[in-house]
Amino acid sequence: TDNQIILGIETSCDETAVAVIKNGKEIVANVVASQIESHKRFGGVVPEIASRHHVEQMTIVLEEAMNQANIDFSDIDAIAVTEGPGLVGALLVGVNAAKAIAFAHNIPLIGVHHIAGHIYANRLIQELQFPLLSLVVSGGHTELVYMKEHGSFKVIGETRDDAAGEAYDKVARTLNLPYPGGPHIDRLAGEGNPTIDLPRAWLEEGSYDFSFSGLKSSVINTLHNAEQRGETIDSKDLAASFQASVIDVLVTKTVKAAKEYDVKQVLLAGGVAANKGLRQSLEKAFVELNGIELIIPPLSLCTDNAAMIAAAGSILYDKGIRSDYALNANPGLDL
Ligand code: KG4
Ligand code: ZN
């Protein structure tokens, strides 16, 4: 239809989010209740606290989104909900809320993969052109995903240990920065210089996989060794050096894959896409690769939200894909 309304629900981690999307790409409402304040003092997301917050917030966030969109349940064509991957207890809240609404109002239900959502955040900015490549960098994932058409995802590279965001958060913690550490490292990096020599994990020739745990350990060792020698390390320079290493590997592999797979577009996705250094380096690299369009969503669509889940759900809806009432949370769901 030319007036398709999809309600999106996302609760895979620490944001309770509900959104309303029109025709797969127009945001009508996008409400996100963040729990960051509740998790900060623990230095990371506490799963049980996350689940309880989702239960408290779900109906409030839903009502707010419905009010902003000025719609009734009868206007909704389908409900798209994140079924995985993520924290199981957190996912269950969203999945169950979606099922309750779908059942009560007889609305089609569609389970969505969280990473498909991150990728489809880009469609809220620009129409997608295939084949395309997406660099997905979040707290739980670091993947290069090739898409030859809508709804088709081929993971051509992924992290073998820590995700990029995880590495940021762990390095931030060793520098005594608050959770989530990514934005703090990003800010410090902007004030420092990459003067400290840190490793880059290129892995085997031709591999598009990533590895960040060695880099993380190297940062910790650098701090530790300096401490033992009674020296101090400038945390700004250390942050800048760490960030330079992460970005160097991410951008180099993305550019190489974009050329090899001869794609029309490169999409940036996931929370780490908010990183200023990464955005700038990608923009610079792709100026020279004319013919390949780089899409970088605004920060609000890079971090977890439900508009992206509704956008991915819209494609499944158009393909006639529906979930039944046995839909369950799947914390290890494959893309
Ligand atoms: O996609 P997201 O909101 O949640 C997951 O699905 O994981 O990503 C959160 C991650 C966190 O690790 C956070 O530190 C990181 O994204 N992040 C950043 C920046 N903003 C958020 N990392 C580096 N630089 C940033 N500016
Ligand atoms: Zn995410």
UniProtKB/TrEMBL annotation:
Q: From the Swiss-Prot or TrEMBL record, what is one GO molecular function term?
A: tRNA N(6)-L-threonylcarbamoyladenine synthase activity
Q: Give start and end of each Gcp-like domain.
A: 26-310
Give the subcellular location.
Answer: Cytoplasm
Q: Report the cofactor remark.
A: Binds 1 Fe(2+) ion per subunit.
Give the record's keywords alphabetically: Acyltransferase, Cytoplasm, Iron, Metal-binding, Transferase, tRNA processing
Q: Which residues bind substrate?
A: 136-140, 169, 182, 186, 275
Superkingdom, taxonomy of origin: Bacteria
Please give the family membership noted in the entry: Belongs to the KAE1 / TsaD family.
Briefly state the protein's biological role: Required for the formation of a threonylcarbamoyl group on adenosine at position 37 (t(6)A37) in tRNAs that read codons beginning with adenine. Is involved in the transfer of the threonylcarbamoyl moiety of threonylcarbamoyl-AMP (TC-AMP) to the N6 group of A37, together with TsaE and TsaB. TsaD likely plays a direct catalytic role in this reaction.
Name of the molecule in the record? tRNA N6-adenosine threonylcarbamoyltransferase
Organism encoding this protein: Litchfieldia luteola
